[in-house]
Design goal:
Helices cover about 45% and strands about 15% of the residues. The protein has nine helices and seven strands, in the order E-H-H-E-E-H-E-E-E-H-E-H-H-H-H-H.
Length: about 270
């Protein structure tokens, strides 16, 4: 077993995937495109994707790919907003409001549960469809923009293709600080484990890890205190709003929400 730094931390995630070869290998397996890039940018650089952890622009293939590590309390709407903002940035210099560049965003959730029972990968592809039949309409947009949510704790799902599954499993395995390299055949994943090896983490990176851990604990404590205050106030509307928020985030079962809010199981299911 190799001792590694968990990829749940932004500083470690950026350390790993700021390597162009690891970034491009990840992107190739997830979207099937071999990027031609010299480096991976960590914002802020220029006007594009300043809200994202990592991004690269392939001018030959006219594509921008962004990779983001999401936290437990992050919402889907946040990343949809960032994706749309990045798309708008590419149109800013266009005379006819066409998209000169395709924007693809891949968001990795390392702690959040997938809202889908069928997969750990959810795709928002901005494709139009007929209102009556629901049929997708091709050839309306030249650029196939995509927003991809990847829930790494669902890596073992039987229908997940192997290239996706290995990356998801590798990220998820790192969360407890140790990995079994023999379980992986992808050479890029072997390289990933070398980059995040525990002994190669610098003092500054360890300090950032500790700071991030403390920040997450503080945010979670405040969130739980808000739930407690809502319960103590006994205001039905506050409790119902909390239930909706908890269910939308997809982190808790109905039974866990009952324990936190004091509402009945029937009411929680109904909201």
């Amino acid at each position: 077993m190799k001792q590694v730094a968990p990829l749940r931390y932004d500083v470690i995630f950026k350390k790993a995937f700021s390597h162009p070869n690891l970034f491009t290998a990840l992107v190739k397996d997830f979207i099937g495109i071999q990027l031609e890039i010299d480096k991976v940018f960590i914002p802020p650089v220029g006007n594009i994707t300043t809200k994202f952890d990592l991004f690269a622009e392939d001018k030959k293939n006219r594509i921008i790919v962004e990779v983001q590590h999401a936290h437990n309390l992050d919402t889907y709407e946040r990343f949809l907003y960032y994706q749309c903002s990045a798309m708008v940035e590419t149109v800013a210099s266009s005379g006819n409001y066409s998209f000169p560049t395709t924007v693809v965003t891949i968001v990795f959730f390392t702690q959040k549960k997938t809202p889908s029972p069928d997969s750990g990968i959810i795709v928002h592809d901005f494709e139009p469809k007929d209102f009556i039949t629901g049929k997708l309409l091709d050839k309306i947009y030249q650029r196939k923009h995509k927003l991809i949510f990847v829930f790494t704790n669902k890596a073992a799902h039987i229908k997940t293709p192997k290239p996706y599954r290995e990356w998801m499993q590798a990220i998820n395995d790192s969360l407890d600080g140790k990995v079994d390299e023999s379980e992986y055949s992808n050479p890029s994943i072997q390289e990933l484990f070398q980059v995040i090896e525990k002994d190669k983490i610098t003092p500054d990176e360890r300090a950032y890890m500790k700071e991030e851990y403390n920040r997450e604990e503080t945010e979670m404590r405040k969130f739980q205190e808000g739930i407690k205050e809502g319960r103590e106030e006994g205001r039905k509307e506050v409790q119902e709003e909390l239930v909706r928020t908890l269910k939308a985030r997809g982190n808790f079962t109905n039974e866990e929400i009952v324990d936190m809010t004091g509402l009945s199981l029937e009411m929680v299911k109904a909201l």
